[in-house]
Amino acid sequence: MKHAISTLGFILLAAAAAGAQVASHAPTQPSSTQPAPDQPVARVNDTVLTGSDLVREEYAIFPYARQHGGLPKELAGQIRQGAMQMMVFEELVYQEALRRRMTVPPARMQQAEAQFRKQFATPDEYNTMLQADFHGSQQLLNEKIRRSLLIDALLKIEVENRDTVTDADALAYFHKNGARFDHPETWTFQTISVLPPQNATPAQLAEGKQRAEKAYEQAKTTKTAEAFGLLAEKLSDDDYRVVLGQHKPVPVSQLAPPVLQALRSMQPGQVSGIIQLDQAYTIVRLNVHSPAGRAKFADVRADLEKQMKETRRNQLRKALDTQLRQNAKIQEF
Questions:
Q1: Number of domains forming the structure of the chain
Q2: Mean pLDDT of 104-118
């Protein structure tokens, strides 16, 4: 289970969710399906979690809900289920921190309180939030901040301090899962395409061929990818014209045979002749040809270690969640 909220972000979400309806947007999830702020939605041991806690977690998962006044109907059930799981997990972590008699140093509390206040433009804005979400009680807000800090502190002990991935770990994974790092032969290129209108007449087809020939005369004089791209932006009919005719690396299996044949005869920087594809015409500039092969460990190490660390972190969170639930009494309403 992913713990996505950290320190003051946890509090900010709590405050933001309390008054989350946006007047300019109709709710995407009917308000009748949302629990009332004080309505119990779950009990974790002796602690009752309420509708406001659940909404806070929903908006942590789907922040755009604050802009549109609710959750997308098609995703509401899935988001609510994830929010409930996250909310219960956080409460279990908090209770475990209390069981271990963990505390927050006064200096850390002061730092967190000051950081939280900086999120508000004016003292009046801060006081409005305090009144609306914490009944004007600074003590209630401080308790929420302390709770968030304790959750982070325990997760640092049980997750962050144990999710280390070394170069040796990554290298061993690389060798064991080598096929994952194989890549097919790909071609990176730009195009200028002349496309006929639907149900084109013979005259329109002839006009398209003439356009393609004129485009080719200009394209073959270009010396750089940028110059070819500017020409594509001006002359091409396909959607790639908005990105200077640039295509992402395309594997051989996705290339039309006439295009592949032309590319195989070219060197990077060269421009093809006119390639006819049914009633359309295209001109290709080859930028990069990448033969099939296996990536080098040095090239993938950073991303691989990041992915492995994230996987390890999720495994540790899941194991912690399972452990904390074993002897807990959890009831969802």
A1: 2
A2: 95
